[in-house]
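Researcher: I'm preparing a figure for a lab meeting and need a structural model of a single chain. I don't have an experimental structure, so a prediction will have to do for now. The sequence is pasted below. Please return the structure as tokens so I can convert it later.
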Amino acid sequence: MKNKWKIRPIMTGANYVDKGLYATHQTDVGTRIKLPALAFLIEGYDRRILVDTGMSDGEHATKWHHNGEQGPDQAIHKALAKMDVPTESIETILFTHLHWDHCFNLDQFPTARKVVSEEEWRFAQNPIPIYWNSYEAPILGIGKPRPFDRVKFDKVNGEEQILEGIRMFPTPGHSTGHMAVQVNTEQGVIVLAGDCFFIKDNLLPDKRRNWPFLPIGRFANVVDLWHSCEEILRRADLVLMSHEWSHLEQEVYG
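Model: Understood. Here is the structure written out token by token.
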């Protein structure tokens, strides 16, 4: 029986960042770029699995993170509604990590199983100051619960099969407990890489420094990040990233 998993990218908003500090390590520092915040819907066998839930509204993003914008139909639950996908039909949500632009609007999915790595959940509870904003630490005084507060997660350690043809595997580096999601499709193995790679430039060789690829600029551990990137590239026939505009040019992958 052929595997029929399909993947649909979902636009949940966009943010303006410094390219060299976030997307391309020590390359184009000072260049401002606009990056989408994507979530992904995996569908097949009459099942629906969401990978990440995307970012907040633009006002919140701009106040606490980066200059951001979110269209009136781009919050994850509204975007799904436009796709004729009821939120209650999402049975599982897999989180690559718990940074603010990947886990907002969780309260819209009260019945879905939520899965995250044990290490990511643990670090998110008490991040070091450099990552206070990424996890909306209470010390900042934002004044409302974080998206993942009071949420029951199933926590995984190491690689785990979620469903036949769908696996999560550790890819630390951007965050301490980052995970990628591997999906076996008719098109081949597609890896939803989260923030191990930001944009397609990351997949190209860095000829200036003779590197096989160009890593991102925002990381907790660059050694872990490098090896995680290598592992994704080893597994994947196609890599889908959370901040790459060109992914929206195709409605369905797989």
